[in-house]
């Protein structure tokens, strides 16, 4: 080994990576904050479990990019369609994840994306229909961390 | 009786030397240790984030640069033809330098010498893009680094590094990746550590990175002082890993957790 | 300049539902990370993605920091007529990228 670093540099790097392995996550939101975020979208209307299908892997190898697919069964006509799908988390620093907005031209109310999950938690999707009704689904994800992290 | 004991001893020694390397039939890419979802991310070019770097690399390939005002394409033409198999053969011996060089080093040597442009920084966007673009042209081809009288000493140096215990955790690469692959380390499955997919998109980095970056992560993981980018030791190790993975198919740009 | 990868079937039957895949390079800096010196790295994300088809909006996504880096969004639309699909990403620090794709509807 040709490089010679100062002892302090080495200890700092070792300490940071140790800290990184022990606690990585910033302070998270609470389930109450998620409820408030959902209420901001839904208002006083009731939310019924069902009609929304939320697909997430039960175990994720890395919380930085968790594949998510959410869909709502609907004829997607001008008279009857999905207006929007909202996704929330309970333990991320912020409860809002994404809102997808559709019209009858969507054909299918089905979207895939990749989200960040700060910790093992439950993800909630709220479907908003053209008749003003709200439906929901939940999925629990266990989030593991990669071994051998970066020093920064 | 003595002859039998000597023969038995020689047999055991031979067997243990062979046992050190993963048998060819058991060699598996890191791809096989990933979840179905992460594999799906790699499978489609339209879903693979690494392809964003390949796209950029393709643009850089055709861009004239440097005091010589030359593009890679001016000398090398269509990369799909000229660069086919190149990544699968690197690190390769460079006569001018008297030692094997990595693909990144080869690209930078071209930039400095032929294009008269400044070398691209380690892990810079452009270097990763060009490396990813070139490596993509070897996708599906078997790894095939040349080991001869010139490269043998560097292979041996790489192997020595692989087998040496180091760091505060006093672990050798071999102990995890030869002896305990398939088992779990802190929730993650230990792969065999074959560099079939580099440069790759690591979910942990949220971006693209080289094999050297991954080596440094491992070295930090065993609480060792990581070698600096560009250190010849890292190229020796890469040569050893590529030789160890000989015959396995390249799948760059890969996605890994 | 942000790279994009867009997958649109070049042709479709009228009334067919087609799947569109989009991928754009962007760090989606959350605003929660800290540098090695402890300073907070400011938020820098894509906030809106809009797809129009023949001039009419057919899909939009409002993104928050919980969307992974290099956002990947797959959605559907009905192939109504031959024409141009536009994809517009906008976000913090004046980020704005527009791409187009043609579709032939028979």
Q: Which second-level CATH architecture of chain C applies?
A: Sandwich
Major β-sheet of chain A, in short?
A: 6 strands, mixed
CATH architecture of chain A: Sandwich
Helix content of chain C: under 10%
Poorly predicted spans of chain A: 11-25
Number of domains of chain C: 1
Kindly, what is the distance between the CA atoms of the first and last residues of chain A, rounded to a whole number of angstroms? Answer: 22 Å
CATH superfamily of chain C: Immunoglobulins
Radius of gyration over C-alpha positions of chain C, nearest whole angstrom: 16 Å
What is the CATH C-level name of chain C? Mainly Beta
Spatial sequence of strands, sheet with the most strands of chain C: 2-8-7-4-5
Topology pattern of chain C, helix = H, strand = E? EEEEEEEE
Number of strands of chain A: 9
- Classified by CATH, the class of chain A is Mainly Beta
Structural class by helix and strand composition of chain A: alpha+beta
Distinctive features:
heterotrimer; B: 257 residues; mainly alpha; Cytochrome Bc1 Complex, Chain D, domain 2; three-stranded mixed beta sheet; two-stranded antiparallel ribbon; globular; C: 106 residues; mainly beta; Immunoglobulin-like; three-stranded antiparallel beta sheet; 8 strands; elongated
Give a written overview of the molecule.
The complex is a heterotrimer of chains A (152), B (257) and C (106). Chain A has 152 residues and is α+β, with helices and mostly antiparallel strands. Chain A has one domain: SoxY domain (Immunoglobulin-like, Sandwich), CATH 2.60.40.2470. Chain A is 18% helix and 38% strand. Chain A contains 2 helices and 9 strands. In chain A, strands 1, 3, 5, 6, 8 and 9 form a 6-stranded mixed β-sheet that branches. Chain A has a 3-stranded antiparallel β-sheet with strand order 2-4-7, with no helix packed on it. In chain A, strand 5 and strand 6 form a beta hairpin. About 10% of the residues of chain A have low confidence. Chain B has 11 helices and 7 strands. In chain B, helix 8 packs across helix 11. Chain B is mostly helical. In chain B, 40% of the residues are buried. Chain C has 106 residues and is an all-beta fold. Chain C has a single domain, classed as Immunoglobulins (Immunoglobulin-like, Sandwich). Chain C starts with a strand and ends with a strand. Chains A and B meet through helix 1 and strand 3 of A and helix 2 and helix 10 of B.
């Amino acid at each position: 080994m040709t490089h010679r670093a100062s002892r302090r540099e080495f200890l700092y790097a070792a300490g940071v990576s140790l800290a990184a392995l022990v606690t990585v996550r910033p302070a998270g939101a609470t389930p109450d904050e998620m409820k408030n975020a959902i209420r901001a979208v839904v208002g006083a209307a009731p939310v019924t479990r069902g009609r929304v299908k939320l697909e997430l892997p039960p175990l994720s190898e890395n919380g930085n990019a968790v594949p998510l697919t959410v869909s709502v069964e609907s004829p997607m006509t001008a008279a009857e369609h999905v207006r929007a799908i909202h996704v929330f988390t309970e333990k991320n620093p912020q409860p809002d994840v994404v809102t997808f907005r559709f019209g009858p031209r969507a054909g299918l109310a089905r979207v895939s994306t990749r989200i960040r999950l700060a910790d093992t938690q439950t993800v909630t999707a709220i479907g908003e229909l053209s008749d003003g009704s709200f439906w929901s689904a939940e999925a629990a994800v266990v989030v593991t961390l990669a071994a051998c992290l970066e020093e920064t | 009786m003595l002859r039998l004991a000597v023969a038995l001893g020689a047999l055991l020694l031979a067997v243990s030397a062979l046992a050190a390397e993963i048998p060819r039939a058991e060699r598996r890419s890191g791809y096989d240790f990933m979840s179905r979802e992460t594999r799906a991310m790699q499978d489609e070019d339209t879903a693979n984030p690494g392809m964003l770097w390949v796209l950029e690399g393709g643009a850089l390939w055709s861009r004239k640069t440097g005091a010589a005002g030359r593009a890679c394409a001016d000398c090398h033409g269509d990369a799909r033809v000229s660069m086919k198999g190149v990544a699968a053969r690197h690190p390769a011996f460079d006569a001018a330098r008297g030692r094997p060089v990595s693909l990144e080093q080869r690209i930078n040597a071209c930039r400095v010498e032929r294009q008269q442009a400044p070398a691209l920084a380690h892990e810079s966007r452009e270097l990763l893009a060009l490396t990813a673009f070139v490596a993509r042209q070897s996708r599906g081809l078997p790894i095939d680094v040349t080991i001869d009288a010139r490269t043998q000493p560097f292979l041996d140096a790489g192997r020595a590094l692989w087998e040496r215990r180091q760091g505060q955790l006093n672990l050798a690469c071999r102990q995890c990746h030869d002896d305990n692959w398939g088992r779990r380390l802190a929730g993650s499955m230990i792969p065999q550590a074959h560099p079939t997919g580099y440069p790759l998109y690591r979910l942990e980095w949220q971006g693209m990175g080289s094999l050297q970056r991954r080596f440094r992560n491992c070295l930090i993981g065993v609480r060792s002082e990581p070698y600096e980018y560009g250190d010849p030791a890292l190229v020796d190790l890469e040569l050893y890993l590529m030789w160890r993975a000989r015959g396995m198919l390249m799948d760059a740009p890969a996605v890994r957790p | 300049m942000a790279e994009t990868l867009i997958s649109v079937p070049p042709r479709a039957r009228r009334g067919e539902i087609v799947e569109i895949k989009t991928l754009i390079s962007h760090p989606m800096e959350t605003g929660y990370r800290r540098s090695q010196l402890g300073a907070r790295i400011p938020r820098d994300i894509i906030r809106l993605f809009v797809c129009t088809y023949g001039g009419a909006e057919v899909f939009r996504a409002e993104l928050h920091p919980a969307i992974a880096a290099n956002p990947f969004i797959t959605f559907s639309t009905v192939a109504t007529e031959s024409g141009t699909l536009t994809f517009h990403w906008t976000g913090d620090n004046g980020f704005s990228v527009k791409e187009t794709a043609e579709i032939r509807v028979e």
